[in-house]
């Protein structure tokens, strides 16, 4: 029985190791290719180690005015920041209202709103495009952020479920002390749900940093081009220079990896708390 258990552990870890290798291999290949010169990539192939490693691809992307990534990175940072602030503010307020306030039609309104999660994003692209085009916002910064800044059904659903699981005794005690609705939200609800809020922050940042379809449809030129659209355009612009394309891909990945490293503990706590509830 002991040998069988060890064999089961070994098989489990072997499967996990293979899955990790398959997941990480594309990212490792991207970084290795970005550290090569175009000549070495052609001569040695994509699987060879860079010898010696070079940063010339990154320097070209971060210093070149035409075709560089500085402007797309700035646009993407602004877009993600505005969407993040808007979604967190409106999602927290809406979830608090749906979870802890009483008003006519509360549950019906909540489930109708959450039902929009079942609608594929591609279905609403054309109506949103027509609406913003007729409003004169096509190819502007506000066209990038307006469809997403007023909250997220997923975020509101997740926050509502966590708010409803809070101990009612704590809220009753604060109300007896004279706390109003906003003070209750700021001093009790948000601090107790900080892990799940941080998780939603990460999900929002990753989702909109990686968003491609909507920025591609609503913008048509470099002024408001995001990093995903700019990187996609480089595949045709630098079709014979894959080291440059992989350098752009690596630059796009770095902020998300740094965010995960910084907030991985909070992310783990939120997953554990959700499983416990």
UniProtKB/TrEMBL annotation:
Keywords: Cell membrane, Membrane, Transmembrane, Transmembrane helix, Transport. Belongs to the binding-protein-dependent transport system permease family. The keyword Electron transport does not apply. InterPro entries: MetI-like (IPR000515), MetI-like_sf (IPR035906). This is Carbohydrate ABC transporter permease. It is a multi-pass membrane protein. Residues 73-263 form the ABC transmembrane type-1 domain. Gene3D superfamilies: MetI-like. The lineage of its organism: Bacteria, Bacillati, Actinomycetota, Actinomycetes, Micrococcales. The keyword Kinase does not apply. Its main location: membrane. Signal peptide: none annotated. The chain crosses the membrane at residues 7-29, 79-101, 108-129, 141-163, 184-206, 242-263. It is found in: Cell membrane.
């Amino acid at each position: 029985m002991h040998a069988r258990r060890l064999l089961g552990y070994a098989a489990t870890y072997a499967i996990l190791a293979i899955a990790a290798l398959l997941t990480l291999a594309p990212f490792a290949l991207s970084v290795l290719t970005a550290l090569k010169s175009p000549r070495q990539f052609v001569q040695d192939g994509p699987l060879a180690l860079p010898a010696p490693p070079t940063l010339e691809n990154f320097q070209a992307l971060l210093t070149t005015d035409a075709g560089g990534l500085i402007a797309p990175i700035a646009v993407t940072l602004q877009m993600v920041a505005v969407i993040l602030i808007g979604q967190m503010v409106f999602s927290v307020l809406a979830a608090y209202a749906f979870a802890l306030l009483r008003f006519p039609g509360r549950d019906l309104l909540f489930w109708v709103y959450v039902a929009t999660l079942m609608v594929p994003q591609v279905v609403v692209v054309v109506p949103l495009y027509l609406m913003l085009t007729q409003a004169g916002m096509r190819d502007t910064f506000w066209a990038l952020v307006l469809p997403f800044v007023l909250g997220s059904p997923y975020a509101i659903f997740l926050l509502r479920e966590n708010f409803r699981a809070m101990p009612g005794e704590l809220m009753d005690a604060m109300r007896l002390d004279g706390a109003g609705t906003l003070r209750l939200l700021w001093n009790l609800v948000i601090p107790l749900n900080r892990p799940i809020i941080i998780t939603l922050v990460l999900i929002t940042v990753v989702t909109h940093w990686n968003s491609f379809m909507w920025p591609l449809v609503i913008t048509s030129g470099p002024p408001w081009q995001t990093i995903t659209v700019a990187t996609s355009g480089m595949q045709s612009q630098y079709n014979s220079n894959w080291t440059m394309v992989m350098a752009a891909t690596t630059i796009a990945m770095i902020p998300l990896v740094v965010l995960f490293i910084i907030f991985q503990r909070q992310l783990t706590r939120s997953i554990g708390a959700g499983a416990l509830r």
